[in-house]
Amino acid sequence: MTYTSALVHDLLREGFDRSPMFNGRIKSLGPRYCPSIEDKINRFADKDRHQLFVEPEGWNTCEMYVNGFSTSLPEDVQFKAMRSIVGFENVKFFRPGYAIEYDYFPPTQLKHTLETKLIDGLFFAGQINGTTGYEEAASQGLMAGINAALKVQEKEPFILRRDEAYIGVLVDDLITKGTEEPYRMFTSRAEYRTLLRQDNADFRLTPKGFDLGLASEKRLRRMEEKREQSENFVQFFKETSISAEEANPVLEAKDSAAVSQQGKMFKLFARPNIGIEDVRKFEAVESYIRSHNPDREVIEQAEIQVKYSGYIEKERNNADKLSRLENIKIPANFDYSALQSMSLEAREKLNKIQPVTISQASRISGVSPSDVSVLLVYMGR
Ligand SMILES: Cc1cc2nc3c(=O)[nH]c(=O)nc-3n(C[C@H](O)[C@H](O)[C@H](O)COP(=O)(O)OP(=O)(O)OC[C@H]3O[C@@H](n4cnc5c(N)ncnc54)[C@H](O)[C@@H]3O)c2cc1C
Q: Which of its termini does the chain have fewer beta carbons within 10 Å around, N or C?
């Protein structure tokens, strides 16, 4: 790892007037989360150095990737600045940094299946939809591919909801809100991230994969076994009591308040500073583990279900409440212009996006809760 310096920044600044990103030849917005070095110097002018990671390009090459130094400044400026970085005094170039500009199609022109609304049978996935990122491209490719295949087979489309998968959030964001800058999927964009966990990805998606013919029966059975075993383990904690004498030494060791009488283990395990290693000190738990021999994933799943059950349940209720709006469908090609009690902006946006459900309509920017009420009345609710 090395750093830029005030000297390096001064040298780079000399090239700003020749940079296509600065002199206006390139007008696009760069990806917010991976700014070029000139962008960083400009936007974070108070910093006198920036971190650079020097990453080998492979086992059998002396070529290094200078992570953190992406740039579209003129080659001579890059080279001079680079040689002024500590450790890079004798550096040689394979090729200079460069900027690329992409065009994209506004993704609001797509259906949830990623099929274009205008051209039947044409599906778009990846960077063409205004996203950036490997996973963003890969997941859209998967969804577009599945739906193209289903369409050819005249089967029902495959759509993941926002409370079922990050893919659901990604696709819904893109087609409902569009994007003005390279879109990245962040967990913070998902309102139901307590439900969308890595540890339950198999519970959420393996049955769907199996139905589509994309996951084997063996895989489905393994998932079902894991689910059953972890549910049984959770049930054990709910049903099994523990005496105060056995519980208190373990609780005290973890600065957790002592109990005065016998109680269910579930309540103790749910305490914030009590983990699986602590409850394993109870004879009944150790004996359960000895006789049932659950694997690591089952134990972890049970622990999550016990510790976060309150939060998970609350989130599930919220999602179910909203999914009622998800079930109220809006007829295709609905004409919003006639709904005078709705704001003009909402009517314009709704006409353009043509949401499929009331819930999708509510997520369009510029559509207010009162516009949604008007729509609900109109749909007879
Ligand atoms: C330098 C760089 C670094 C990046 N680093 C990261 C990173 O660290 N992490 C990350 O997540 N993302 C990164 N990205 C972004 C990520 O690589 C892209 O968003 C993603 O690969 C886009 O995938 P895609 O399949 O949509 O498009 P592409 O991978 O661009 O695929 C489009 C394909 O279509 C082909 N094609 C084009 N026109 C035609 C035609 N007329 N006929 C037939 N084929 C055609 C092209 O040759 C290409 O193979 C980086 C991008 C760049 C440029």
A: N
